[in-house]
């Protein structure tokens, strides 16, 4: 057996680096009993490397390519073209030619072959690389096959393949190419089979696309295909397409496109028995590989041949369950306004704090609501809770309508009696000192933690944190604390409902919620305006900050006029808010105190876009607008029948809102304050592990669960591969988009907005802060890259409290994630910013720089 060329039957699972992902999968497929794979062989990466590695021109060009970034498209194109020319000009080594000739003589040189690229980073569980390198069909004769082997080698450096590698973090020098040479089948039909539905991700649905002739017409998008769906060996859906053309092989080599007879165009490609037979083969292949598969097949002489199988890399993982029952999972990230993946240490901390039954999947957390859907009472309560997110509520309604979750037998539970908002509020005393007392107790507890943790290390530190988390849970779930913001939320709902009913005014509470006391998050944004005011008189400092790149910029400030004042202002800000950052529910995220340079663009934006004293002026303007709205509403109410009573009740509700709604943001502030103290102590411990040679970098601890970290601290031992494997997983999870609602079948269920009488091109979302505003859309995915002008509208995936500093520089908000009481909505209302959240794919549908109109009252966006 030569290392230059291997037959499919000669390969084993250890030879990925020799035959690439496609070749390795074909080798595996050829060994599955009952699976027909056309014969073939692979020219290994050894042959490829032997041909080109000693070429000095190739090496020099590869050095240039390695330095290029994705945005340098013209240079990528030019260097890639020259590399392809070099490869095409290289002579295939004689021993490779001899080996190829040997295998062709065994299989029959007179036959037609498919010559296909197989890269070492292709058809892998975490990256498919589908379509990045070239495939050539119906190649006949040794010389033609050798020529197309060179073409496949060169296709490793097509523009699309090079760009894909850069985008996905693969180094050009670490990717090599094998070439698959496989005997062609002359098919009557061909297509693609997915063992999980590619639209809904349902793992129990097999989806088959089928058309006449070679599969190239289907893969290239030249023809519509029949689509068949199979569930539990039953065909549940058939869509028969009009197939106008097909591609067939020519006797002399190559392919041609032919018109299909009109009376055959709408004929079903596969009959029912063939569909079920193919579905069975798909499940057999999926079982062998252990994960859902994307399978290329063809049918010839009533035999199904499999010509490729690769993992489906786009499916969102299903949370693990301890049983085979049906489960329904709701995304925690969509409720917390943070849908990025969370590192293992961050997941551990969140799970230690939450009382809800949560599951991990794709680096995110999900709540299993199956128990609540199994009873009438639970269903009603859950749907009521989800009224703030119509997309989740709509998905849950679909699940209930399908009867996916059965009610428990003999469910005797009665529906929860409906209570008015007034009933819920009646027992609570409207005393604003309740909030100040809660805040004082929390601050005292944090100060005590800060002092006591200093002397802890090793296992004592771990035990101390476990004990303190119990204190954190008591604070987070303090009944009085919960009652404060729940009372305010209920009062908000009451005001909105009653003002709409009595006065025909929508979302009246939005204005009434502006500039309330004790909102630590909105105060944080306004405080950064005060920092800008300190810096504004010092042009030398402003120039310096515009050039600042690293985090020691604070140390250099003192040599400048106004530098000491600037340093003090920023340091004071960090002492109160430095524990915050974007994605702050993940303890591993870099905090502002750890990377203060993050604040510099926002400070400079505040100087550019705001006048002096803007913080105080904005707060006072919001407070006055709230008072004016209150006066207006009460005056209008008094003109109604029974108006004095209605006005008095409304006044009570407004006072509750103004006294208590600001506290809504405080519990999370207390949580992240504790998080930062825990983190600083754990990083000190991690430094000891680095010195002991247990880990390479102190931040490696982020890739361990808290329980694993406890064991490492106790034993000073760790398998290096755990960290590297977790880092790879995190990179994979970062490319996934978490669904709002996911079933245990893997199906992503989506809801819709039910609206009427809107403009035809309206982009729908959830109205969370009233008003209409026009402006330039700034599509920003990374807060550190924000470059805002006066009047801009922020369009982003999500905004947790760490984004608040940007809110003082914008005029409107559009997010992909969020609900009525999530962070972005609360702060938008307080700042008086029209806002629409829950806009599906907003950052893709709206382009950076476009002029848009945000309808915060009605809940939609228009592109102007």
Automatic annotation (TrEMBL):
Enzyme class: transferase
Keywords for the protein's UniProt record, in alphabetical order: ATP-binding, Nucleotide-binding
InterPro entries to which the protein is assigned, alphabetical: ATP_grasp_subdomain_1, PEP-util_enz_mobile_dom, PEP_Utilizing_Enz, Phosphohistidine_dom_sf, PPDK_AMP/ATP-bd
Database matches in Pfam families: PEP-utilizers, PPDK_N
Signal peptide annotation: none
Catalytic activity: rifampicin + ATP + H2O = 21-phosphorifampicin + AMP + phosphate + 2 H(+)
SUPFAM superfamilies: Glutathione synthetase ATP-binding domain-like, Phosphohistidine domain
Any one GO molecular-function label of the UniProt entry: kinase activity
Protein name: Rifampicin phosphotransferase
Organism whose genome encodes this protein: Paenibacillus radicis
């Amino acid at each position: 057996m030569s290392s230059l060329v291997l037959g499919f039957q000669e390969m084993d699972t250890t030879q990925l680096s020799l035959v690439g992902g496609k070749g390795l999968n074909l080798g595996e497929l050829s060994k599955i009993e009952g699976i027909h794979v056309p014969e073939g062989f692979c020219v290994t990466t050894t042959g490829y490397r032997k041909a080109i590695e000693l070429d000095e021109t190739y090496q020099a060009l590869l050095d240039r390519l390695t330095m290029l970034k994705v945005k340098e498209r013209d240079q990528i194109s030019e260097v890639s073209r020259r590399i392809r020319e070099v490869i095409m000009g290289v002579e295939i080594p004689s021993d490779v030619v001899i080996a190829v000739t040997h295998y062709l003589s065994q299989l029959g040189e007179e036959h037609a072959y498919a010559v296909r690229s197989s890269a070492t980073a292709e058809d892998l569980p975490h990256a498919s690389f589908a379509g990045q390198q070239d495939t050539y069909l119906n190649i006949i004769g040794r010389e033609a096959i050798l020529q197309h082997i060179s073409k496949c080698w060169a296709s490793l450096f097509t523009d699309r393949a090079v760009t894909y590698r850069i985008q996905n973090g693969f180094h050009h020098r670490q990717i090599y190419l094998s070439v698959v040479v496989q005997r062609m089948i002359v098919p009557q039909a061909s297509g693609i089979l997915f063992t999980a539905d590619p639209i809904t991700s349902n793992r129990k649905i097999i989806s088959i696309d089928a058309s006449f002739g070679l599969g190239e017409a289907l893969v290239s998008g030249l023809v519509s295909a029949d689509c068949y769906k199979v569930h539990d060996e039953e065909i549940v859906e058939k869509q028969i397409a009009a197939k106008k053309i097909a591609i067939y092989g020519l006797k002399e080599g190559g392919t041609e496109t032919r018109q299909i007879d009109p009376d055959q165009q709408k004929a079903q490609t596969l009959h029912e028995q063939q569909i079920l037979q193919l579905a069975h083969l798909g499940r057999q292949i999926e079982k062998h590989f252990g994960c859902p598969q994307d399978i290329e097949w063809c049918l010839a002489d009533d035999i199904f041949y499999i010509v490729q199988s690769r993992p489906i890399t786009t499916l969102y993982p299903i949370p693990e369950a301890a049983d085979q029952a049906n489960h329904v999972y709701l995304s925690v990230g969509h409720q917390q306004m943070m849908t990025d993946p969370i590192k293992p240490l961050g997941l551990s901390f969140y799970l230690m704090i939450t009382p809800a039954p949560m599951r991990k999947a794709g680096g995110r957390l999900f709540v299993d609501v199956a128990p609540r859907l199994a009873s009438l009472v639970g269903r009603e309560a859950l749907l009521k809770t989800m009224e703030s997110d119509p997309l989740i509520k709509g998905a849950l309604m679909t699940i209930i309508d399908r009867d996916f979750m059965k009610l428990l037998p003999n469910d005797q539970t009665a529906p929860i009696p409906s209570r008015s908002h007034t009933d819920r509020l009646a027992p609570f005393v409207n005393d604003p000192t309740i909030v100040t007392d809660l805040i004082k107790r929390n601050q005292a507890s944090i100060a005590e933690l800060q002092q006591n943790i200093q002397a802890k290390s090793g296992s004592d530190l771990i035990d101390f944190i476990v004990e303190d988390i119990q204190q954190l849970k008591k604070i987070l779930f303090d009944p009085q604390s919960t009652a404060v913001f729940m009372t305010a939320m209920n009062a908000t709902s009451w005001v909105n409902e009653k003002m709409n009913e009595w006065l025909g005014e929508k979302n009246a509470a939005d204005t009434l919620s502006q500039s309330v006391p004790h909102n630590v998050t909105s105060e944080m944004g306004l405080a950064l305006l005060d920092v800008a005011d300190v810096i504004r008189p010092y042009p030398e400092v402003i120039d310096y900050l515009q050039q600042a790149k690293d985090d020691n910029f604070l140390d250099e400030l003192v040599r400048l006029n106004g530098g000491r004042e600037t340093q003090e202002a920023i340091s004071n800000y960090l002492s109160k808010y430095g524990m915050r950052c974007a994605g702050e529910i993940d303890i591993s995220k870099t905090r502002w105190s750890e990377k203060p340079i993050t604040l510099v663009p926002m400070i400079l934006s505040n100087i550019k876009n705001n006048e002096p004293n803007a913080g105080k002026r904005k707060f006072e303007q919001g407070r006055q607008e709230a008072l004016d709205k209150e006066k207006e509403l009460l005056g209008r109410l008094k003109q109604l029948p029974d108006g004095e009573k209605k006005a008095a009740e409304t006044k009570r509700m407004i006072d509750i809102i103004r006294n208590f709604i600001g506290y809504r943001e405080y519990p999370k502030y207390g949580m992240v304050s504790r998080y930062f103290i825990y983190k600083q102590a754990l990083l000190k411990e991690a430094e000891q592990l680095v010195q002991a040679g247990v880990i390479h970098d102190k931040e490696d601890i982020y890739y361990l669960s808290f329980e694993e970290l406890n064991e490492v601290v106790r034993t000073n031992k760790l398998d290096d591969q755990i960290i590297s494997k977790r880092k790879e997983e995190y990179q994979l999870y970062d490319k996934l988009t978490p669904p709002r609602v996911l079933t245990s079948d893997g199906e992503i269920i989506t809801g819709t907005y039910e609206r009427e009488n809107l403009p035809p091109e309206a982009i729908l979302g959830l109205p969370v802060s009233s008003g209409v505003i026009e402006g330039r859309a700034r599509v920003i995915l990374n807060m550190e890259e924000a470059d805002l002008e006066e009047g801009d509208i922020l369009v982003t995936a999500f905004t947790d409290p760490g984004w608040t500093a940007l809110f003082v520089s914008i005029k409107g908000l559009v997010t992909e994630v969020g609900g009525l009481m999530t962070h972005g909505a609360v702060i938008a209302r307080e700042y008086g910013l029209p806002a629409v959240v829950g806009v599906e794919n907003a950052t893709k549908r709206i382009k950076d720089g476009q002029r848009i109109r945000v309808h915060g009252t009605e809940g939609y966006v228009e592109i102007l």
